[in-house]
C-alpha cells in the first residue's frame, strides 16, 4: 500500500473507538488503528488505519483487516479494540470478535441480588499477522478462538516478559465474572495458542476508589466491576497497566450505568504477576480505553476516546517521574477541543 499524499482530516472529524497508535520511524508516520467503518472503502467487520505525519492532520482511513465469514465461522462480528505489535520481524494485529448466536452461561438470576439483564455470548481476541503496518492482516487461527472458548474475553494486548516470552493480557468480562478481571495467558511463540496456565493480575474491585464512589444503597457485593482495555508499558524496572472502568456504577435493566474513566495500576516489581497497586484515575469525563506511545520528538503521549458513544480521539502529554504517571496537559492543538 502506497503512503498517503493528502492529510485532510482532523481528530474531531474521525470517528474512532478504542484507538491504538504505532509511531513508525521507518515511514515517519503515525498509524492509528480502530474498528473498520464504511469510510475506509471496504464495509464489514475488521480494522482500518488512519495515518499522519504530525498527529494533527490525518489521511483518509484504509482497511487493513476484514473478517472472512467463510474462513472464521466461529465469530464474524465486532473487531473491537485493535492493537498492532511487532514480534519476530512481523506485525501482529490483536482484535476482539464476537458471535451473538453462540451463547455462554450467565450468572443465575438473583445470584448477585439482582436479575442479570443481558445475554452472554462468545467473545475473544484473535491474532492476525502481516509484513506491513498497512496489512493485509491474516488470522493465524481462523477456525477457533486462541483463548479458551468458554471465557468471555476481550481487548487482548501483547506483552513480552523479561524472559522474552509472549503473553496475551486481556479483560475477562464483568458480564461473566461480575467482578471483572485483567488476566494474562502465556502464548506459544507463533502466537496462535495458549502455552501454559493463565494468571489473574487484578480484579476490578481492587481499585478501592470504585467502592468509594458507589451510589448510596448499592451493596458492595452486587455491584458490577468493569475491566476494559488493558495496555502495558514498562518504565525501567517498573511495569504500568492502563485500564478503564466505570465509577459510580450500577447494574440496570439495560446493562451497566456509570461514568467511564481512564485509570491505571503499577507493579513496582516489574513482573507481570505483580503485586499490582491500583492508582487514582488519570482522566474522567466519559473517557477511556487509552494507550501510551512515544511521539517522534520523544514526548510520552496517551491517546484515548471520548465520549463513549460517538467517540473521538483525545491526546494527552504525559510524564513518568519514577513512581507516578501523570497527565501534563491535553493536546487540544492536536485533538481540536
Strand content: over 45%
Helical content stands at: under 10%
CATH class: Mainly Beta
User: What is the name of the CATH topology?
Assistant: Tachylectin-2, Chain A
Whole-Å distance between the termini? 32 Å
Number of domains: 1
Structure description:
The protein has 337 residues and is mostly beta strands. The chain has one domain (75-335): Glycosyl hydrolase domain, family 43 (Tachylectin-2, Chain A), CATH 2.115.10. 4% of the residues lie in helices and 46% in strands. It is built from three helices and 20 strands. Strands 1-2-3-4 form a four-stranded antiparallel β-sheet, with no helix packed on it. Strands 5-6-7-8 form a four-stranded antiparallel β-sheet, with no helix packed on it. Strand 13 (228-235) and strand 14 form a beta hairpin. It is globular. InterPro entries: Glyco_hydro_43, Glyco_hydro_beta-prop_sf, Glycosyl_Hydrlase_43.
Indicate the topology.
Blueprint: E1 20-24, E2 29-35, E3 46-52, E4 62-66, E5 77-87, E6 90-104, E7 120-130, E8 138-139, E9 153-160, E10 166-172, H1 174-177, E11 181-186, E12 199-203, H2 208-212, E13 228-235, E14 238-252, E15 255-267, E16 277-278, E17 288-294, E18 300-306, E19 312-320, E20 325-330, H3 332-335
Antiparallel strand pairs: 1-2, 2-3, 3-4, 5-6, 6-7, 7-8, 9-10, 10-11, 11-12, 13-14, 14-15, 15-16, 17-18, 18-19, 19-20
Describe what is shown at a glance.
By secondary structure, the chain is mainly beta. 4% of the residues lie in helices and 46% in strands.
List descriptors.
four-stranded antiparallel β-sheet; mainly beta; 4% helix; single chain; 337 residues; 46% strand; Tachylectin-2, Chain A; 20 strands
Amino acid at each position: 500500500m502506497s503512503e498517503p499524499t493528502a492529510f485532510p482530516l482532523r481528530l474531531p472529524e474521525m470517528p474512532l473507538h478504542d484507538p491504538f497508535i504505532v509511531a513508525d520511524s521507518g515511514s515517519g508516520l503515525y498509524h492509528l488503528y480502530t474498528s473498520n467503518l464504511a469510510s475506509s472503502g471496504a464495509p464489514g467487520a475488521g480494522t482500518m488505519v488512519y495515518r499522519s505525519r504530525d498527529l494533527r492532520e490525518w489521511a483518509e482511513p484504509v482497511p487493513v483487516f476484514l473478517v472472512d465469514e467463510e474462513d472464521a465461522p466461529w465469530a464474524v462480528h465486532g473487531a473491537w479494540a485493535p492493537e498492532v505489535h511487532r514480534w519476530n520481524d512481523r506485525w501482529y494485529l490483536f482484535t476482539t470478535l464476537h458471535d451473538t448466536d453462540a451463547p455462554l452461561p450467565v450468572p443465575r438470576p438473583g445470584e448477585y441480588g439482582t436479575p442479570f439483564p443481558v445475554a452472554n455470548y462468545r467473545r475473544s481476541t484473535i491474532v492476525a499477522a502481516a509484513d506491513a503496518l498497512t496489512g493485509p492482516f491474516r488470522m493465524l487461527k481462523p477456525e477457533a478462538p486462541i483463548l479458551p472458548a468458554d471465557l468471555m474475553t476481550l481487548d487482548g494486548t501483547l506483552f513480552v516478559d523479561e524472559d522474552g516470552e509472549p503473553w496475551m493480557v486481556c479483560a475477562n468480562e464483568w458480564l461473566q465474572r461480575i467482578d471483572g478481571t485483567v488476566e494474562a495467558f502465556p502464548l506459544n511463540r507463533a502466537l496462535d495458542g495458549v502455552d501454559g496456565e493463565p494468571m489473574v493480575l487484578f480484579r476490578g474491585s481492587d481499585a478501592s476508589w470504585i467502592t468509594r464512589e458507589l451510589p448510596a444503597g448499592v451493596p458492595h457485593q452486587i455491584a458490577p466491576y468493569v475491566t476494559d482495555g488493558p495496555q502495558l508499558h514498562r518504565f525501567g524496572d517498573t511495569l504500568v497497566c492502563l485500564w478503564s472502568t466505570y465509577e459510580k456504577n450500577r447494574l440496570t435493566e439495560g446493562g451497566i450505568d456509570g461514568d467511564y474513566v481512564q485509570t491505571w495500576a503499577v507493579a513496582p516489581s516489574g513482573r507481570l504477576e505483580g503485586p499490582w497497586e491500583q492508582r487514582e484515575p488519570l482522566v474522567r469525563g466519559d473517557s477511556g480505553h487509552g494507550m501510551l506511545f512515544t511521539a517522534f520528538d520523544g514526548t510520552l503521549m496517551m491517546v484515548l476516546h471520548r465520549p463513549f458513544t460517538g467517540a473521538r480521539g483525545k491526546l494527552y502529554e504525559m510524564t513518568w517521574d519514577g513512581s507516578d504517571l501523570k497527565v501534563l496537559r491535553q493536546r487540544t492543538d492536536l485533538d481540536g477541543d
